[in-house]
């Protein structure tokens, strides 16, 4: 992670001698770009569990020697690689997040972030107007849809350990609806936990064509159905014991998100549970990632589709028909899970 400040640099920062805009507008941005290229080129796999020279990495990755040297030294400075003698290998941090064989691999998510770059070129338009020239899904190629689904899958695998025990459905639940369920990981997890449960994952057909393989691998094809279409336009299936709305509300303006929550509550049985997970804005402005990430997600989603991020208090106000609304703060800073009981 950058910047990793030394003690002296922290002191400079404390007394406002560190020119932070240089890192924010230059160093961090170009480093992010370099990381995306390295992940796409499989550089971290190349050096995983091996000690290689710059020339060897350059040869295997088919990159120039000068480009490779700049890349790997940047990853040493940021803690993903380490130098041993004149050779390089991956650190524990790099191995955990950036090597494909790791259960915590985030390379698919980094690939998804790379697809955002082109669209950030019109962010001034989006900030000016409150919406982009076109919604993201009208700009997606087939490959972009696949990258999107697997990127969201990485994020879900990161969250699932923390979320799984917080989802408590009524006894012997029969029906679960995963709105915008993409990769279906959360629906699969719920079906594994509740043997009486069948799930429906709603999403655009372009996303669901990639979901089918994930469901097949889980062995739950009989119990996890895929329903293609625009969930703002098609009727939500009724009599649900549980509804998941994970990373969905930020994709809409407040009134549309509120309406989706109202429709979801109608689709639940009495006593059924709606779970909303999102990057929620913190009202008590504590510093740190929990404050920063929801704002950056908000800016990005404004640029993607004219959406926004919301606070727990806003979400609670949308749930007038609920009997109880409960909030869980998750281990990942900035992410909140809300349980709404009908
Ligand atoms: C940010 S992803 C979240 C995926 C998953 N719920 C998760 O948390 O990992 C949003 C998903 O909702 C889908 N989506 C957004 N708007 C939609 C709409 N109007 N109709 C159907 N699917 C939609 C997208 O295709 C995408 O798969």
Question: Please, could you describe this protein's structure?
Answer:
- The protein is of the alpha/beta class and 342 residues long.
- The chain has two domains: 7-102, Arc Repressor Mutant, subunit A, CATH 1.10.10.10; 119-341, Rossmann fold (3-Layer(aba) Sandwich).
- 49% of the residues lie in helices and 16% in strands.
- It has helices at 7-14, 20-40, 43-47, 54-61, 65-77, 92-98, 107-120, 123-129, 142-163, 185-193, 205-218, 254-267, 289-305, 312-318, and strands spanning 81-84, 87-90, 175-179, 198-203, 224-228, 240-246, 268-279, 324-329, 335-341.
- It has a seven-stranded mixed beta sheet, with helices on both faces. It has a two-stranded antiparallel ribbon with strand order 1-2.
- Helix 7 (107-120) packs across helix 9 (142-163) and helix 9 crosses helix 11.
- The radius of gyration is 22 Å and the shape is globular.
- 36% of the residues are buried.
- The site of S-adenosylmethionine has 16 residues, from helix 9.
Give the key terms.
342 residues, Arc Repressor Mutant, subunit A, Rossmann fold, 2 domains, 7-stranded mixed beta sheet, two-stranded antiparallel sheet, 14 helices, binds S-adenosylmethionine
């Amino acid at each position: 992670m950058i910047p990793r400040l030394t003690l002296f640099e922290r002191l400079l920062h404390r007394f406002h001698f560190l020119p932070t805009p240089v890192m924010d507008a230059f160093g961090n941005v170009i480093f992010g770009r370099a990381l995306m290229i390295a992940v796409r080129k499989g550089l971290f796999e190349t050096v995983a569990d091996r000690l290689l020279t710059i020339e060897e990495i350059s040869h295997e990755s088919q990159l120039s020697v000068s480009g490779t040297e700049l890349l790997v030294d940047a990853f040493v400075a940021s803690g993903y690689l380490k130098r041993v003698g004149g050779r390089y290998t991956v650190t524990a941090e790099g191995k955990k997040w950036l090597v494909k064989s790791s259960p915590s691999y985030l390379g698919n998510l980094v690939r998804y972030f790379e697809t955002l770059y082109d669209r950030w070129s019109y962010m001034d338009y989006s900030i000016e107007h409150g919406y982009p020239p076109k919604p993201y899904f009208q700009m997606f190629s087939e490959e972009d849809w696949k990258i999107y689904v697997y990127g969201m899958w990485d994020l879900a695998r990161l969250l699932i350990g923390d979320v799984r025990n917080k989802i408590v459905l009524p006894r012997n639940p029969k029906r679960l609806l995963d709105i915008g369920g993409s990769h279906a990981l959360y629906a699969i997890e719920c079906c594994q936990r509740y043997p009486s449960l069948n799930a429906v994952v709603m999403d655009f057909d372009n996303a669901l064509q990639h979901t089918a393989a994930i469901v097949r691998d889980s062995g739950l094809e009989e119990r996890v159905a895929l329903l293609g279409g625009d969930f703002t336009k098609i009727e939500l299936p009724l009599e649900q014991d549980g509804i998941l709305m994970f990373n969905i509300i930020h994709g809409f303006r407040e009134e549309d998100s509120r309406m989706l929550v109202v429709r979801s509550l109608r689709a639940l049985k009495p006593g059924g549970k709606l779970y909303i997970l999102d990057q929620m804005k913190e009202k008590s402005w504590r510093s740190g990632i929990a404050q920063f990430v929801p704002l950056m997600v908000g800016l990005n989603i404004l640029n993607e589709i004219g959406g926004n991020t919301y606070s727990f208090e806003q979400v609670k106000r949308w749930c007038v028909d609920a009997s109880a609304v409960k909030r869980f703060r998750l281990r990942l800073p900035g992410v909140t899970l809300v349980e709404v009981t009908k």
